[in-house]
Specification:
single chain, alpha/beta, 4-stranded antiparallel beta sheet, 31 helices
Length: 828
């Protein structure tokens, strides 16, 4: 797709250098600088302005128009020549292979730095199209600035060109070694920058661009300067255009090889920190090849940079969580607990990590973003996997889009009658995590011969597959994550419909947080256009929703669907999600076919060729537009499941269930009001609405957990302003809700901390003991709780017992630096 425009652009560079008439080195620097800075401006304009407004197809049309405009200007300004005036080409000397190899190493070093720093940018600012654009623009801007500096230097530089290249690459190697720790610290810098959140998205992305550009400039600037000096070095015995072409050809070849090898070999083996350090090694090698020194002079330099590479890898393994603290969604949260890193792998597609907390919960991070947990969003994962499959006419085969924790696939296979579940998952590390770390949460689903995991891109598979299924469940990551918005487009929904057997059902998850009404409306409108007979399910009020559509013939057998869900395994899963009985399940349905269309009314359906959501969704990350979303839901006027062929005669099972579910349905109204009040910072109203919702739906574990997390957030805020009594009251309210173990543990720890703060060692000791018992029941060690309990004992004057608690913490902690710190405290 890019061969023709890329070849045209590449062919223009040598000609432009010749037109300047200032020599290969100066011409290369000026042309390269203009091109790089223009490219950076174009990337920023396309990603942050044009693509969200006119879509990707509009940007491509604009690119074609620019090519046509450039061609027209060139044609109008073509020189008038005659055959007699055309100069006869002169013979040239072949460029030394060693010089070309050095330039290729230079190009490889540049893209090694760019590839690894882009991954670090995703870990810092989220794996979105905007983060990729900011990183790319920062890289080429740094390249252009380096070329501008070289252009100025070349006016008075009379040294040998090869020596200048060697100096530039040597300086780049040193600077890459020094810049690597700064690049590796970008995620923590971002957390500090966004500690209190952000109200100005433009400022956020300007800061992101600046941070990556400043980190890139010392390294990539040297690369740009070396390219210009390389053209001057090759100009002896050759034309300016030929010298420039040789430089571009060599560095471009190095760019391609460097990008591929870094992404597929270096980063998976040495980690992103090691990939950053490899750029220094490549630059050092380029300097060596250009000067061709003796082995005696070569050894110390290579040993130095090999040591730097080894040190980077060692540090990454020592603290694997350092790069996983990205602020997106969690900025300013202060009270978010992600748990201890069990393992982290920098794979080809993403950096994947698995964490575990003191309650035994397991958490999956993909490029820093939390994409699955065994506790927090377990209800969503199971409900999304159960409902579409149970509602299909004859659910024997199921396709699940996105593996995550494997709990959705586990839910799908639990529905009676299911004989085969195919799961598409692109990232190998996610498959490994689901198979091992989440095996307990998904009941060993990946060991079931009925479950087949295919390492494929879901949208490509849906478009190209020929096999059909009785149910399809789509639970990808959020649409602001790069590549995910395609799974919410009309083309993918149409492809899914073609893969369904007659009477089949498709479930498509979407979120209602960190977005706006227009984005939600577009997703719903797109789905309703492809599946006119559909329903809307509220999985978690104000957060997670599910669309279920049917392929004709549509005649939903509600009793049969509910009977399937009342089988032993599905019923147990629904109980864990807080859904007990048919009425509670019915209360989750909030719209029929007409209501779904009403929610999406006025929104523009999403198209794969447009992909405007890919660039618009990241701009909504820090926006809470719950009132807009709920205003769309308020358009619903029909009964839940209406329009799906159900018996609507008075006294029918469907209408009877609707009457029975009215109290639970009212709880959903209050839960949405709770979320709306939080978005407007009306905390008292939010907690009051939440308490009402819980009183109407007391068996709903997820709702109790949602309310408990609100109490914890307010307790943390009150503690920060020294309102200790208020914080304690909120923490006690959490315990009274009887939430999940994670919320209970956090409340107990907070109560212990508050007790220690007021020097009540006995109360602190008691609360920490309860917390430790909770972790021990989950089979987990909690060394920091023993440190806190030691503080309580010290307050009580029991120094010997406090020392014993510290000894226990030292023995159970896995962090070497923390162990040394505790040993120092123990010595005091």
């Amino acid at each position: 797709m890019t061969a023709v425009p890329g070849a045209l652009a590449g062919a223009l560079y040598p000609s432009a250098v010749v037109l300047l008439g200032r020599g290969a080195g100066f011409g290369t620097a000026v042309v390269g600088a203009l091109s790089s800075l223009g490219a950076a401006a174009a990337v920023l304009a396309a990603a942050f302005g044009l693509a969200p407004a006119v879509g990707v197809d509009g940007v491509l049309v604009g690119c074609a128009a620019l090519y046509a405009l450039a061609a027209g200007v060139a044609w109008l300004q073509r020189p008038e020549t005659h055959d007699a005036e055309v100069a006869t080409p002169t013979s040239s000397v072949p460029a030394p292979r060693a010089d070309l190899a050095a330039l290729a190493l230079l190009g490889a070093a540049s893209t090694a730095w760019q590839t690894s720093l882009t991954r670090m940018g995703e870990l810092s600012f989220g794996p979105s199209a905007l983060a990729l654009a900011a990183a790319l623009a920062a890289h080429v801007s740094a390249l252009g600035l380096g070329e501008l500096v070289a252009a100025r230097a070349l006016r008075r530089d009379t040294t040998d060109g090869r020596l200048s290249v060697a100096r530039a690459t040597r300086a780049g190697a040193v600077l890459a070694t020094l810049a690597r720790p700064v690049a590796a610290a970008l995620p923590s810098f971002a957390v500090d920058r966004l500690r209190e959140g952000t109200a100005d998205l433009g400022a956020l992305w300007a800061w992101a661009f600046g941070a990556v550009a400043i980190t890139s400039l010392p390294v990539v600037g040297c690369v740009g300067a070396a390219m210009a000096h390389g053209a001057r070095a090759l100009s002896t015995g050759r034309s300016d255009g030929e010298a420039n072409g040789a430089v571009l050809l060599s560095t471009s070849a190095g760019n391609a090889v460097g990008a591929l090898v870094t992404a597929t070999v270096v980063m998976p083996r040495l980690g992103v920190e090691g990939a950053l350090a490899s750029s220094a090694v490549l630059l050092a090698a380029a300097s060596v090849v250009m000067l061709r020194p003796t082995a005696k002079r070569l050894a110390p330099a290579l040993a130095l940079f090999a040591a730097a590479l080894g040190g980077a890898v060692w540090l990454a393994k020592r603290d694997p969580g350092a790069a996983l603290s990205g602020p997106f969604l969690y900025a300013g949260g202060g009270d978010v607990e992600l748990g201890e890193v069990r393992w982290r792998r920098d794979g080809r597609e993403a950096t994947v990590a698995v964490r575990g907390d003191a309650t035994g919960a397991v958490l999956l991070q993909i490029n820093g973003k939390v994409d699955a947990t065994s506790e927090g969003d377990a209800a969503t994962q199971t409900v999304v996997g159960l409902l579409p499959v149970a509602m299909a006419r004859d659910p024997r085969s199921v396709l699940v889009v996105g593996l995550g924790s494997g709990m959705t696939a586990d839910a799908a296979r639990a529905v009676p009658g299911v004989r085969r579940v195919v799961v598409t998952e692109l990232v190998p590390e996610v498959i490994d995590a689901a198979r091992r770390d989440f095996a307990r949460a998904n009941h060993g689903a990946l060991s079931d011969p009925r479950v087949e995991v295919r390492a494929l891109d879901a949208s490509h598979y849906l478009r190209g597959a020929r096999e059909t299924f009785d149910a399809i469940v789509s639970e990808p990551s959020n649409p602001w994550v790069t590549g995910m918005s395609d799974l919410f487009t009309r083309e993918v929904f149409e492809a899914a419909r073609e893969r369904l057997n007659p009477g089949g059902a498709m479930g498509a998850w979407f979120h209602a947080y960190s977005t706006d009404g227009a984005a939600v409306g577009a997703i719903v409108a797109t789905f309703a256009e492809v599946f006119p007979r559909s329903t809307l399910v509220e999985v978690t009020p104000g957060q997670d929703y599910l669309l279920v559509g049917f392929k004709p013939p549509v005649a939903l057998d509600l009793d049969r669907a509910l009977t399937r869900l009342e089988a032993q395994a599905p019923a147990a899963m629904l109980r864990r999600a807080g859904i007990v009985g048919r009425a509670a399940l019915m209360s989750r349905f909030i719209a029929g076919a007409d209501g779904v269309r009403a929610v999406g009314e006025g929104a523009e359906p999403l198209r794969a060729s447009d992909l405007s959501l890919e660039f618009r969704a990241p701009t909504l990350l820090y926006r809470d537009a719950a009132p807009e979303v709920f205003a769309r839901f308020a358009r619903v006027r029909d009964l839940p499941l209406a329009g799906l062929g159900l018996d609507d005669r008075p006294g029918s099972a469907w209408l009877r269930l609707l009457d029975e579910s009215e109290p639970a349905r009212e709880a959903g109204v209050h839960a949405r009001a709770m979320v709306r009040a939080v978005s407007q910072d009306r905390w008292d109203d939010a907690l009051r609405e939440g308490e009402t919702a819980v009183s109407l739906r007391p068996d709903d574990v997820s709702l109790r957990g949602q309310l408990a997390r609100l109490y914890l957030r307010r307790a943390s805020a009150l503690r920060r302003v020294n309102n200790l009594a208020g914080a304690e009251a909120d923490a006690i309210a959490v315990l009274e809700l009887d939430p999940g173990s994670a919320e209970r543990l956090r409340a107990l720890v907070m109560l212990g901390d508050l007790a220690n703060r007021r020097r009540d060692g006995a109360r602190g000791f008691s609360r920490y003991t309860e917390a430790i018992a909770l972790t021990q029941a989950a089979g987990q060690h909690a060394p920091e709780l023993h440190v806190r309990r030691a503080e309580s004992l010290a307050i009580l004057g029991q120094r010997r017992e406090a020392a014993a608690e510290l000894d226990l913490a030292i023995r159970t902690t896995r962090d070497p630096s923390r162990r040394r710190e505790l040993q120092r405290v123990r010595g005091l």
